[in-house]
Amino acid sequence: MSHLHPETVAVTAGRPAHESDQPLNVPIHLASTYVAGGELEYGRYGNPSWAAFEDVLGALEGGRCISLASGIAATSAVLDLVAPGGIVVAPRHSYTGTILQLEDRAAAGRVVLRLVDLTDADAVIAACEGAAMLWFESPTNPALEVADIAALTSGAHAHGALVVVDNTFATPLRQKPLAQGADLVVHSATKAISGHSDLIMGAVIAADAAHAEQLVARRSLGGAVPSAFEAFLALRGLRTLAVRLDRAEATARELVKRLSDHPRLEQVRYPGFSTVVSIVVRGGAEAADALTGSTKLWIHATSLGGVESTFERRRRWAAEADTIPAGLVRLSVGLEHADDLADDLIRALDAIG
């Protein structure tokens, strides 16, 4: 289906055959055990509900998808590909769960961690000398820095490093890292992929069959398998990703326009795509906390990518990088009307003393 537009692939891939009395959707397979002699054998090794989701996300990203129990489980499975003592290069501004994973492994001597400034491509590539893996997000969370994926991938490969891109913010509808040379793509499917804040799930998409088989082995051995029900829900959410993303992005751009000159803001950050905007509130942590506690529509919550608009001050988390401004508030734009979201946010900003 390589000739089809991604919006069509999201709707048509991973379906049962078009035959009489076949359901349009792959049913939820609630099975731990299968009759012997086939490919599945046991519920930790596979499930048709996972496979349907994997077919769709793999087709969208351009590789083979392996679904896992969470985004962190996906991260862990990928980092397990690094040999003991291997060097991992990662941006200083990354999802805190990823940084905590890396720091935990570094403290145990399992990896050597090199944190870099993603905005300095030459320095990132130089840091890859002798490295086993370059891991980065684009846009970064929550600084929203954008990387030149092709350039970083080429430079890292020249040093012999495996390249992993967390594509959670952009989704495969806005960028395809595998097509730009990356080896692996990671998603927290909890976020925009599923889009309804009702499940936890992760995925890795591999360009190379050998890496895919290694990741399947990690999933089977580690047991970080998704539930059939969550895989079903994630696929249902993925079917509508295109329309959700278009709508939320349009609202995000409108919010950026309306907020750009607000006197209570030092900065508005938006990479031009994705559903995430970051604002830096004048007055630091106290003013930002006042904002997140005084809106009617915006929900103070830590996740993102859902149909509802959420926001939070990221430095409230102790693990967040100290180079992130204390007053930075990350906005996850949902599907409410742009006027209502803007009015609610501006009213709250205006009320900050």
TrEMBL record:
GO cellular component: cytoplasm
Ranges where the record places region Disordered: 1-22
Stored InterPro entries: Cys/Met-Metab_PyrdxlP-dep_enz, PyrdxlP-dep_Trfase, PyrdxlP-dep_Trfase_major, PyrdxlP-dep_Trfase_small
Keyword Zinc-finger among record annotations: no
Modification sites for N6-(pyridoxal phosphate)lysine: K191
UniProt cofactor(s): pyridoxal 5'-phosphate
A biological process term (GO) from this entry: cysteine biosynthetic process via cystathionine
Reactions catalysed: L-methionine + H2O = methanethiol + 2-oxobutanoate + NH4(+); L-homocysteine + H2O = 2-oxobutanoate + hydrogen sulfide + NH4(+) + H(+)
Keywords (A to Z) from UniProt: Aminotransferase, Pyridoxal phosphate, Transferase
Pfam families assigned to the protein according to its UniProt record, in alphabetical order: Cys_Met_Meta_PP (PF01053)
Protein's UniProt keywords contain Transferase: yes
Gene Ontology MF term list: cystathionine gamma-lyase activity; cystathionine gamma-synthase activity; homocysteine desulfhydrase activity; methionine gamma-lyase activity; pyridoxal phosphate binding; transaminase activity
Family per similarity comment: Belongs to the trans-sulfuration enzymes family.
Protein name: homocysteine desulfhydrase
